[in-house]
Amino acid sequence: MNQIIKIEIDGQVCMGQKGQYLVDVARENGIYIPTLCNIIGMKPRGACRLCTVRVNGKLMTSCTTPISNGMQVETKSEELDNLRNGIIELMFAEGNHFCPACEKSGNCELQALAYRFRISVPRFPFQFPQRDIEAGHPLLIKDHNRCILCKRCIRAIKDESGKSIFAFTKRGPKVGISIDTTLSAKMDKTLAQKAVEICPVGAILPRAQAFRSPIGTRKYDKTPIGEEESSKKDPVAL
Amino acid sequence: MNNTKIESIVGRYNGDATRLMDILIDIQDEMGCIPDDSIQQLSRILDISKVDIEQTLTFYHFLSKTPRGKFTIYLNNSAVANMFGRKEVAQAFEDAAGCKFGEVTSDGLIGLFNTSCIGMNDQEPAAIINNAVFTRLTPFRAKEIIRDLRKGKSIPELFVAGYGDGNNSSDLIHAVVNNHIMKKGAVLAENYELGISTHRAMEMSPEAVIEEVKKSNIRGRGGAGFPTGLKWEFCRKSPGEKHFVFCNADEGEPGTFKDRVILTEKPDMIFEGMTIGAYAIGAEEGILYLRYEYKYLQDFLEKHLEDLRQKNLLGKNILGNPDFNFDIRIQFGAGAYVCGEESALLESAEGKRGEPRDRPPFPVEKGYLQQPTIVNNVETFCSVVKVIQNGGDWYRTLGTKESSGTKLLSVSGDCRFPGVYEVEWGFSVNDILDMVGTDKDQVQAVQVGGPSGSCIAPNEFSRILCFTDLATGGSLIIIGKHRNLLRDIALNFTDFFIEESCGSCTPCRALTPILRNKLVKIIEGKGVMSDLRDLENWSKIMKTNRCGLGQTAVNPILSSLKNFRDLYTSKIQQDVAYDQGFRMDEAVAEACQATYRGFNY
After folding, report:
1. Is residue B587 part of a domain?
2. Residue B455's domain spans which residues?
3. Domain boundaries, position A188
4. Any idea what the CATH number is for the domain that residue B475 is in?
5. Across the interface, do B59 and A127 touch by the CB < 8 Å criterion?
6. In chain A, whose CA is at the least distance from the CA of B512?
7. Residues B479 and B425 in one domain
8. Residue A147 three-state SS
9. Which has the higher per-residue pLDDT, B111 or A215?
10. How many CB atoms lie within 10 A of CB A189?
11. What is the CATH number of the domain that holds B149?
12. Which residues contact B254 (CB under 8 A, 6 or more apart)?
């Protein structure tokens, strides 16, 4: 028994089901709200804060906010664009992202977001942190330089008994991803491939494999990220 | 560590992985650290992955994978400690021990570590050594302590003065901590009689108890100020297998220490308040989440819980009521300010990293172990005891119309009588300054509500402490004119937030250090006008953080910039439009020295 709920996003009346998250309702109604840490179909975590919108005047992450009747949502404004771009820029400034040399270039969600929102250079000084590349796992390489700490791998990749293979370590600016060496040694190819795919950036890569497809054929080479949703309604916004 | 020892520790908690905090704390206390092989064993026994143990372990300041010394000295690094000579004390510790802060002596005897505010701001500089608190330290005392430790003295043998006032001298505490109670009100008053309120509550229906609390208009005393009665009502109405009562005794806001005084002098009142809460919402289990810094109170509090069980004020069929069972256990934190945020506190109590949760759902719907839970501050529970004893109408006669009741203030900094003052809401900052002994013309600023609050200038001293004007969890730090406000206060507080961020939200994790570096640039005289604009504009992104810590993490900068703009502009290079804050000569100095070459452009 599904209860239909009516909300308004940027003045447009949208329908969704009770219990659905705002970001999903927006997408199903052809409205693109950019996300990074969100995984469609999984319990959200609201880690990156990129999908922040105003819900009844309050700043909320749309991936973690269930819809409620009559909700008034604002996704586009000078303020929200500034916050959103600021968060994307922070991710670039916080890590070491050298797109031309990255295997994920063209398939990278962070890079695609920067293109979509026309970010050429972050307003913040690059932090150039000292980070490692971890090559001790049989099927994966973890490049911490490129990690945006979105937690997608932590949430989505578990072994067959449900144990965590990836987890956060430390706190604050020292936070990083640690990989369980015992469990990662037992990962099969399918799970390893899933880990590669779940990573929005080039931080988890398959071993013994470099660039797989030529420029021009990669995911975001021709269509900007979010195009699937927004093309239905608002192609001019690009 | 051998297998049987780990197994016996895990056995104390029935192999329950949600009790990971207790397990790790016990291993740390008994072994001095939690090495890799222990993690391996824990992983096997609890049947969870190693990284899930490490993510909790590495989150908390007092847990460590490497040894921290037979005697571990945690010296408070709060702004007020620094105001009262912490630097010299730290130097004396380093000189005497022969190692730097963050290190352990080569013989493994002494470890020196910094730590965030330990709740002793009225008796700084202070340190925690193997769970015992040492207050009012001087360089002389630091050397003496190290010398005595080297001689083989035990911790109690290190105390050279008598124990502190009140229960601090009791056999189960024996601490050189002082309460410094300067003014008593409804909570700290002598007229408290154990059990009256529980009796009275149980003559009422749970709904009527909630109504009485609502009538009193009391709001949460931790800082956020949510109406207590409403919270209880939401929780009572939320369906769940069980309901839980949590008391938040994780006071970590630098400059706050009033809960420590309540815990020392009125523990029964806290527990009674929790019992009334349990009766009201229908809970059988209560947890006092206590910050690790107050571990020295453990035996004392456990004894009080035991006495309450003996008096049938806790346990089965409380006061003969066949339908009311309730008991309380103490859950320790392990050094994380963010765990004072209620949902982070619940995560921590479940054995996880203290990362705040996404809301909704709220703890009253899905709290501890996903069950309806109320989390209230120590002082809130005590105030509720008085509300039930004397009625909501009586309580509303205290304070102001919107902010009823009393508030315990933790006053520290540049004043003659630092300590705890219980006042009715409605006092102005000026009143407080008069009360605590200051020369008002010598006061530069007052930090209200700790680092996450606001730093106000004399032109705002007429403002009123209440929920509708200057809301506060109770910390007031008085800053004299001779202090360097930007370096000693704003920078110290910003460093505190960087240290204590959980690291989950991008802006809190990544932007706070960037803004901090800009503040340093300005303090060093390398700032330009655009840096001030950047501070103001960039900090807007902090509003997208999930929790109160993240949203207020740059308040020390923003608030001082708003109220002390002249301090900033006076340090700005007026005739320079752009300065990257980078000095080539400094950057290459080491290389020049190594190659015996001078530097020239």
Report:
1. no
2. 407-483
3. 131-206
4. 3.10.20.600
5. no
6. A173
7. yes
8. coil
9. B111
10. 9
11. 3.40.30.10
12. B78, B79, B80, B116, B117, B121, B450, B451, B475, B477, B493, B496
Does B167 reside within a domain?
Answer: no
Is B355 found in the same domain as B210?
yes
Is pTM, for the whole model, over 0.90?
yes
Tokens of B187: 């909570």
Q: Which two tokens stand for residue B276?
A: 């009334």
**Residues of chain A positioned with their CB less than 8 A from the CB of B505:** 46-49
Tell me, yes or no, if A20 comes closer than 8 A to chain B by beta carbon.
Answer: no
Same domain, B218 and B283: yes
The tally of domains found in chain A comes to 2
- Strands (DSSP E) contained in B256-355 are 285-290, 327-332
On whether residue B476 sits in a domain, the answer given is yes
Asked whether A85 and A52 are in contact (CB, 8 A), the reply is no
- Residue-wise pLDDT tens digits, A119-165: 999 999 999 999 999 998 999 999 999 999 999 999 999 999 999 99
Q: Flag whether pLDDT at B574 surpasses 50.
A: yes
Say if residue B531 is in the same domain as residue B390: no
User: How many angstroms separate the CA atoms of B47 and B49, rounded?
Assistant: 7
Number of domains comprising chain B: 5
Q: Model ipTM?
A: 0.94
Among residues 212-231 of chain A, which lie with CB inside 8 Å of chain B? none
Whether residue B43 lies inside any domain: the answer is yes
Q: In what order do the strands lie in the sheet with A140-143?
A: A133-134, A140-143, A204-206
| Residue A96 counted as domain residue | no
Per the listing, tokens 């703890």 go with B363
Which residue type is seen at A71?
M
* A83 and chain B in contact, CB less than 8 A: yes
Kindly report the CATH number assigned to the domain that includes residue A154. Answer: 3.30.70.20
E-assigned strands of B347-459? 373-377, 406-413, 419-424, 443-448, 454-456
Q: Residue B587 belongs to what H/E stretch?
A: helix B584-587
Average pLDDT, integer, range B454-480? 94
Put simply, the answer to whether A173 touches B512 (Cβ < 8 Å) is yes
Give the total residue count for chain B.
Answer: 601
DSSP A180-213: -HHHHHT--HHHHHHHHHH-SSTTEEETT----S
Query: A162 CB contacts (<8 Å, ≥6 apart)?
Result: none
For tokens 């003014």, name the residue: B183
**Do residue B415 and residue B322 come from a single domain?**
no
Preceding peptide of B125 cis, ω within 30°: yes
Q: Which of B234, A71, B343 is nearest to A60 (CA)?
A: A71
